[in-house]
Each structure stands twice: as structure tokens, then as C-alpha cells.
Amino acid sequence: MDTYRLAMIGFGNVGQGFAQILAERGPQLARAYGLNLKIVAVCDLLKGSLCDPAGLDPAALLAAVQSSGRLDSIPAPHRGWDALGTIAKVDADALIELSYTDLKTGEPAITHLRAALERGLHIVTTNKGPIALCYPDLKAIADEHGVEIGAEGTVMSGTPSLRFGQELLAAAGITRIQGIVNGTTNYILTQMENGMDYTAALAGAQAKGYAEADPTGDVEGYDAAGKVVILANLLMGASLDMAAVDRTGITALTPQDIAAAQSAGARWKLIGRVESENGKIIASVRPTRLPLAHPLASVGGATNALTFTTDLLGDVTVVGPGAGRLETGYALICDLLAIHRKQRQ
Ligand code: HSE
């Protein structure tokens, strides 16, 4: 049995989803895969910070947050460390970085991740900012220190996307990836087709935990653009930045546009796309009117879908949850399991 001691920065929706999975399935994961995941530190700006080398019970962490919104009631030998203090002092094997996403600067996550890698910790994150903006630098530091980066949850939450492309489709020759990569906007468009107005639909996406802290990132297409950059750079050998994505969000779509598409047997979807054209990688995010018979047209709500076009297999499509607390928390489990397997080899 291998034990991975985990330090968590951020204990919001995704962190709590991860803790819930550990509380419910930790022993089963240990039995099935020989992997004991032990949270030894949690640091959250709003909820407090604590560290216990003996391990923190995930169910107790959840109960504390649910009852008081804070972690103060949990006994621990160390308290009050900030994020960088936690990373500097904790005795851990991996850092789970779940601070808020900033697609402009990637901070504070980039600083957290660099510090952890330099201490020889594996890093696992669902934070799109650092992976979209800084992956090559982080990978170089990781390689120098012999540790791994897990970022599966940055695209399509726990639905296989990055590892699927990197491991299972790598030899098939990916020439294009396109699909629905933002749950919030797909949920809003689906609700608007059902007659709800934009503001109520956005409020629904926020209430369900799909939207970013600042939902402008979702509705203006920045979140999808970040995911397109991640797909391009991790799966298609590109080195795009955010500005390279030709981006339009959904805010200019009116109820009339949506009704007109419906009466013409079509549906609006926010489509992210990256493709190789004459050796150059081109990327875009834009509302696209799809005929109902198109495979992506029937993907509704917060569900995401990606179609990988490959030389050897033609089109391969993955459909599944694209946001949500357990759905994204699951991606962290996948990454930790993949790291564990790689280390064992
Ligand atoms: N805000 C994102 C979305 C969360 O709606 O898809 C998952 O990355």
C-alpha cells in the first residue's frame, strides 16, 4: 500500500467534492489500487487553514464547512498558515491546487505550483489559469525534480479528455478537436431554448456550481478559450496563448436568435475548436448554429462533448459532465491514481 500525503490549497466546491469522494470511497480505492490518499493540510482563504501530519478526516472537514463555513472546529497541531507557508512547511507528496481561476495572470496558482514543484511535490490541479498560461514552464520544473503534473480536471471536469488524448489517441494522429467545453454556457443555452430568460438561466448555472466565481469568464468565452489552449498545447504540440484564440461568447445571442434556430431545426452551441491547417494550429471559440442532426446538437445542460478527429480512427467523440463538484473532484482522483501507477512502474 502506498500512502500519498496531500496538501490542499482551496476548499471550495471542487475541494469539497474531492473530500466527499475520499470520505465515501477512500477505503475502496485503497483496496482496489493500493493507494491510500491522506489529506494532511487544507488552506482556504475564507474557511481557514490547518495541518495535521497524522491526517485530517475528509468527512469531518466537510461537516465543519457545512455547519459553520469554517474549519476552526477541527483539532490540528498547526493552524493559520497561508498558502505559501503551507507549501513551504507541509510534509506532503502532492499539492492539490484549487485556488480560484484567473485566466489573465494565472495567479496566485502559478506561484503555488512553482513552489510545490521546487519542493519536489507532485501537483494536481483543476485550475485552468496556470495550465493554459504556463504549462511548458511548469512541466520543465516538474521534469527537473522528477515529479508529475495532473491537470485532467481542467477540461471536461472528470470526463476523460486530456489523458484520453495523450495516452489513447496519441498514436492515432489528432488533427482537430472540437466541441462543447463550457458547462455554464451550454446550460444557459439549453434553458433559454426551454423559455427561460438569460439572467435566470445564468443564476441557475451559478446555483448549481457550474459557473466561475466571475461568470464573465464563462459567458464571454474566456473559460472555453482557456480549455482550447490547453487542448492545443497538451494534445497537439502547439504553444498558443489566450490571445491566439479567435473568441466570441454567447452574450450577443438574443432569445430571437434562439427561437429562429429552433424553428429552422437548428440549435446554437458555443463551440471550441482547434485544428491543424497547413502545419499551423488555429483555435477558436464561437457560437455556432448546428442542425439538430449534428452529434453535438443533442448535448444539453452542463454536459460537455469533444470530438477528436484523427488520421487513423476518424472521429472519436467523448460526452460527459463538464462541471460540478463531484464530477471535477473525480478528476483529481484520476490524476492521483495515474501518478501512483506511473511511480510504481
Ligand atoms: N465554469 C466552468 C464551466 C467550470 O462552466 O464549464 C468547469 O470548468
Topology diagram in text:
Elements: E1 2-9, H1 13-33, E2 35-44, E3 48-51, H2 58-68, E4 78-79, H3 83-89, E5 94-97, H4 109-118, E6 122-125, H5 128-145, E7 149-150, H6 162-168, E8 174-180, H7 183-193, H8 198-207, H9 216-219, H10 222-235, E9 245-247, H11 255-263, E10 266-277, E11 280-291, E12 303-310, E13 314-321, H12 325-344
Parallel strand pairs: 1-2, 1-5, 5-6, 6-7, 9-11
Antiparallel strand pairs: 2-3, 3-4, 8-10, 8-12, 10-11, 12-13
Helix pairs in contact: 1-2, 1-12, 3-4, 4-5, 5-10, 7-8
The structure holds L-homoserine.
Instruction: Provide the residue-averaged pLDDT.
Output: 97
Q: What gap, in angstroms, lies between the N and C termini?
A: 14 Å
Query: Order of strands across the widest beta sheet?
Result: 4-3-2-1-5-6-7
Would you count the extended β strands for me? 13
Rounded to the nearest angstrom, the radius of gyration is 20 Å
Kindly state the percentage of residues in helix.
40-55%
Ligands, ions, cofactors: L-homoserine
The share of residues in extended strands comes to 15-25%
Low-confidence stretches: none
Class by helix and strand content?
alpha/beta
- Can you summarize the main beta sheet? 7 strands, mixed
Overall geometry comes to globular
Count of helix runs = 12
- H/E element sequence: EHEEHEHEHEHEHEHHHHEHEEEEH
Describe the structure.
The protein is of the alpha/beta class and 345 residues long. Helices cover 41% and strands 24% of the residues. The strands form two sheets. Strands 4-3-2-1-5-6-7 form a seven-stranded mixed sheet, sandwiched between helices. Strands 9-11-10-8-12-13 form a six-stranded mixed sheet. The two termini are 14 Å apart. Bound molecules: L-homoserine.
